[in-house]
Amino acid sequence: MLYLAQSMTIGFMIAAPVGPIGLLCIQRTLAGGWKLGFITGLGAASADLIYGILGILGFATVISLLTTSTLWLSIAGGIVLIYLGFSAAKSNVSYSTDSKKSHSPLKAYMSTFFLTLSNPMTIFAFIAVFSAIAPGGGDGTEIGLLRLIIICLGVFLGSIAWWIALTSASYYLATKIDDSKIKAISFLAGISIALFGCYTIANAIIKTL
């Protein structure tokens, strides 16, 4: 139970900072309802699970490959953020049944899954924290199968807990404000997401100079 609690805390804390994925979750909840917002978060949580598994197993080859591909992953992720941001900013959002039906759950899931995977720095956060709780220095050499499953499950559940909390808060907000405010918030969220994309690309290029 201790490993489950620790790994759930790790998953929650790594997911919690409200960056572009969080803004997407908020915007999609406002535009498409609780389900769409949660599915958006679920995509990020699934990617966190994959990185959590890689981190605890200490896959040096995979980590090295991800590190050397950071520039192109960041550029690709930045381009997707810019596209999603401007799409959200210019969309005619209203909290209505027709608006909710117009959004694709699969597209919402895959977009945040890819965006989270395009940030390989996440894996180093998992490695750093796992090294403190996992026997064998966090390289997975002394972790039994059951314990490994518990830790990975905990990371996933902790991440899911954050997305449920954020989606629920956004959904509550959507029920308390009118469509004009929802459109304004959605527009600001979209512009912020696009700016995150520009920053991601610029930062990746600057680091290579």
Automatic annotation (TrEMBL):
Q: Which GO terms describe its molecular function?
A: amino acid transmembrane transporter activity
User: Has keyword Membrane?
Assistant: yes
List the membrane topology term(s): Multi-pass membrane protein
Q: Does the keyword Cell membrane apply?
A: yes
Q: Where are the transmembrane segments?
A: 6-26, 38-65, 71-89, 109-133, 145-173, 185-206
Query: Which controlled-vocabulary keywords does the entry list?
Result: Cell membrane, Membrane, Transmembrane, Transmembrane helix
Tell me the lineage of the source organism: unclassified sequences, metagenomes, ecological metagenomes
Q: Might you report a single GO cellular component term?
A: plasma membrane
Q: Which Pfam families match?
A: LysE
- Name of the protein in its database record: Uncharacterized protein
UniProt-annotated location(s): Cell membrane
InterPro entries on file: LeuE-type (IPR001123)
In terms of PANTHER family, this protein maps to:
ARGININE EXPORTER PROTEIN ARGO, ARGININE EXPORTER PROTEIN ARGO-RELATED
Per the UniProt entry, what species is this protein from, by scientific name? marine sediment metagenome
